[in-house]
């Protein structure tokens, strides 16, 4: 029954026009949950991270899917103003994440969708990152946290669904400042078993800019800084590429660095700040 649910999830994925970069899918109906919540009022600040290994030349992340089993009086996602997507570098010398995040993107309600699949208990959440900021991870091991902003006294507790053995074999790590545990520790210490977070990453494998031989600014110009639309060029016909070499088909893309190609040559570099 649960695997049928997984199939339905992939039907949803198929319409997103993005590749599945990585997935570790737990038993969404029976899997446990690990407290994960950003609460500035209680405070009830619980954190859970799990590792991913970015392959190839890197990933351009478009969408992240997670599952949640919430409790302690949780009533509605309408009271969750945003969900933070955090990325921590690997500690390197010892297994586990570093203390400080490398990326922290608050995904507002307009950019995430919630699907209830067990009434009042379990939800699937799809976060769209592509409309907020270019989210590119270079190759290597990174630690991922998906942390809802939620006030315990108003709306209970959020917990991400997890299962032993659903991922790459490396357990999640946790830290709970509320109860004076300020440093990361393995899930086995907290929950008695090596649980792994459930998530799916959608997006695109990065292709080297070098594959597009002329993706260099041949007409040396100072980068133009803009906010809003990219309609600032004195050219009738042109193409727009992002920093990964991927062609962009909108004149109002997410903030980032873009190159304008005219007649097979890159004529202009643009930095969009918002």
The number of helices is 3
Number of domains: 2
Low-confidence stretches: 1-16, 209-221
First-to-last CA distance: 44 Å
Q: Supply the helix-strand structural class.
A: mainly beta
Fraction of residues in H or I helices: under 10%
Oligomer: single chain
Report on this model:
With 274 residues, the protein is mainly beta. The radius of gyration is 20 Å and the shape is globular. The N and C termini lie far apart (44 Å). The strands form four sheets. Strands 1, 4, 7, 8, 9 and 15 form a six-stranded antiparallel β-sheet that branches. Strands 6-5-10-3-12-13 form a six-stranded antiparallel β-sheet. Strands 16-20-19-17-18 form a five-stranded mixed β-sheet, with no helix packed on it. The longest helix is centred in the N-terminal third of the chain and has 13 residues, at 2-14. The model is unreliable at 1-16 and 209-221 (pLDDT under 50). The chain is 8% helix and 44% strand. It has two domains: 2-205, no CATH class; 209-272, no CATH class.
List the topology elements:
Layout: H1 2-14, E1 19-24, E2 32-35, E3 46-54, E4 59-69, E5 82-89, E6 103-108, E7 112-118, E8 122-128, E9 135-137, E10 140-148, H2 152-155, E11 159-164, E12 173-176, E13 181-186, H3 187-191, E14 195-197, E15 199-205, E16 224-226, E17 239-242, E18 247-248, E19 256-262, E20 265-272
Parallel strand pairs: 16-20
Antiparallel strand pairs: 1-15, 2-11, 3-10, 3-12, 4-8, 4-9, 4-15, 5-6, 5-10, 7-8, 11-14, 12-13, 17-18, 17-19, 19-20
């Amino acid at each position: 029954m649960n695997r049928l649910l997984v199939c339905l999830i992939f039907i949803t994925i198929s319409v997103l026009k993005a590749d599945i970069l990585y997935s570790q899918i737990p038993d969404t109906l029976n899997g446990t949950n690990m407290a994960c919540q950003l609460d500035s009022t209680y405070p009830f600040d619980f954190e859970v991270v799990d590792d991913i290994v970015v392959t190839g030349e890197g990933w351009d992340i478009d969408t992240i899917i997670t599952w949640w089993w919430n409790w302690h009086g949780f009533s509605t996602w309408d009271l969750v103003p945003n969900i933070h997507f955090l990325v921590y570098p690997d500690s390197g010398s010892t297994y586990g994440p570093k203390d400080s995040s490398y990326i922290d993107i608050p995904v507002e309600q307009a950019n995430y969708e919630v699907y209830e699949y067990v009434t009042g208990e379990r939800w699937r959440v799809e976060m769209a990152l592509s409309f907020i900021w270019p989210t590119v991870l270079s190759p290597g091991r990174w630690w991922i946290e998906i942390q809802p902003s939620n006030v315990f006294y108003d709306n209970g507790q959020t917990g991400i669904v997890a299962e032993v053995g659903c991922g790459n074999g490396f357990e999640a790590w946790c830290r709970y400042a509320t109860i004076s545990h300020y440093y990361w520790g393995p899930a086995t210490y907290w929950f008695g078993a090596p649980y792994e977070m459930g998530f799916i990453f959608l997006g695109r494998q990065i292709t080297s800019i070098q594959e597009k031989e002329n993706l260099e600014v041949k007409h040396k110009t100072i980068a133009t800084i803009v906010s809003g639309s990219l309609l600032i060029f004195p050219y009738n016909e042109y193409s727009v590429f992002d920093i990964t070499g991927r062609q962009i088909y909108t004149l109002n893309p997410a903030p980032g660095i873009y190159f304008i190609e005219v007649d097979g040559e890159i004529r202009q570099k643009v930095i969009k700040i918002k």
